[in-house]
Amino acid sequence: MNAKPRSVWITGCAGFLGSYLAQAFSAGAYQVVGFSRRPSPYAHHAIRLDLASDQAPGRIRSVIEQLGCPDVVVHVASLQPGPFKRADYVRANVLTTANLLDGLEACPDARIILTSTLSVYGAPADLPVKETAATNGRHPYAMTKRFAERLMEGAQQASVVVLRLPSLFGVGQQDSFIDGLAKLAIDHAKIELYARGELIR
Fold first, then answer.
1. How far is C-alpha 59 from the geometric centre of its chain's CA atoms?
2. What is the DSSP letter of 4?
3. I need a labelling partner for 189 at 20 to 30 A (CA). Which of 4, 15, 22, 47 fits?
4. Nearest to 63 by CA among 79, 48, 78
5. In a structure prediction context, what are the per-residue pLDDT tens digits for the chain, which is 201 residues long?
6. E runs forming strands in 24-108
């Protein structure tokens, strides 16, 4: 008798990182359930959902009733830095996390992985950054991602992992880090140096 494949839920499944994760897990022995405002071609079950909406926790509970609890939830959905208002960051980074946790209350054994950001440290005094460094990020993106981390600290799930990732870029990304720098250079525009210009990627 074949064992039931492990279930992996990915929020922001149609985005850059979410798409790569969905492809990787789908290629393995995993059942991928993707949550996103746009349909994901890589998920076995693509759930179109705005995680910041009031209906999100109820929709998540409905999926649990239909498919069962996930083994792992990778919470990738996020609003990246850009010309947005503070409320946009709160909605996309904090409210989505709160709604996800509310929807998962019936699944205390699910392991949750939150993708956060290195920018929660702001401009750290020492490089490389240590995990114990103070979280002094002042940009609304960094502040709301840190608040999402705090929500995860209060989650009832037994296993929560927070990954503070640096800026991600690669093939298939729209308006990527590299593309952005190239456009500024071609236009002879000023390029802002982060971390005092000492950060090497």
1. 19
2. P
3. 15
4. 48
5. 456 779 999 999 999 899 999 999 998 889 999 999 998 889 999 999 999 999 999 999 999 999 999 999 999 999 988 889 999 999 999 999 999 999 999 999 999 999 999 999 998 878 888 889 999 999 999 999 999 999 999 998 879 999 999 877 776 666 666 677 778 889 998 877 665 666 555
6. 30-36, 45-48, 72-75
Which residues face 192 on adjacent strands? none
Tokens 């064992």 sit on residue: 3
The DSSP element (H or E) to which 160 belongs, if any, is strand 159-165
Tokens found for residue 116: 């956060």
Residue whose entry in the numeric block shows the structure tokens 């792992």: 72
Task: Using CB atoms within 10 Å of the CB of residue 121, give its burial: 0 to 12 exposed, 13 to 18 middle, 19+ buried.
Answer: buried
Residue with the two structure tokens 């800026």: 167
